[in-house]
Specification:
five-stranded parallel sheet, 7 helices, 42% helix, 9 strands
Length: 189
């Protein structure tokens, strides 16, 4: 294989995507993580450059005009985007790359005909998703309601993905994710 493979993982807020992604990244040294850019403020445990590149709204919009983003979307009133140059450089170097992006960004990449392995993480139920968002303790009730409204729309996109993983039992979901990556990383196109 001359280039790396591109992986896209999407999920509604609260489905446990970040936890599963960390488990996968710990397992595969041939897999890199693409740090997205966002205009939202960092949460208490987030680090600039590790979790996201936190940039001003105006800078993000300027980069839209400059065609800087491979994909970008406005989600929960904030922009999120992936650097086109970073993705190309990483894949050209033979490194596989995991993008943690929402369904809008994933659709942009799929519609552009860019080859990617796509995985959608599902909560066990909508009630459980609501419970997780409330227990997270990071958002106001209004933000939680907006996230739940967006989740309903996002869940409608699940069938556009190659794989779907229900995150009900964490250990089982991790095993399923690892099987997907083992299969896809070690099979040539």
């Amino acid at each position: 294989m001359t280039g790396g493979k591109l992986f896209i993982v999407s999920a509604p807020s609260g489905a446990g995507k970040t936890t599963l992604i960390r488990q996968v990244l710990d397992r595969f040294d041939t897999l890199s993580y693409s740090v997205s850019h966002t205009t939202r403020p960092p949460r208490d445990n987030e680090v600039h450059g590790r979790d996201y590149f936190f940039i001003p709204f105006e800078e993000f919009e300027q980069k839209i005009q400059q065609n800087h983003w491979l994909e970008w979307a406005k989600v929960h009133d904030h922009y999120y985007g992936t650097s086109k140059a970073f993705v190309k450089q990483t894949l050209d170097a033979g490194q596989s790359l995991l993008l943690d992006i929402d369904v809008q960004g994933a659709k942009q990449i799929m519609d552009a005909g860019i080859r990617a392995v796509t995985i959608f993480i599902l909560p066990p139920s909508f009630d459980e998703l609501s419970r997780r968002l409330k227990n997270r303790g990071t958002d106001t009730e209004a933000v939680i309601q907006k996230r739940l409204e967006n989740a309903q729309k996002e869940l409608e996109s699940k069938n556009h993905y190659h794989y779907q993983v229900v995150n009900d039992d964490l250990d089982q979901a991790v095993r399923e994710m690892i099987r997907i990556f083992e299969t896809e990383l070690f099979v040539s196109d």
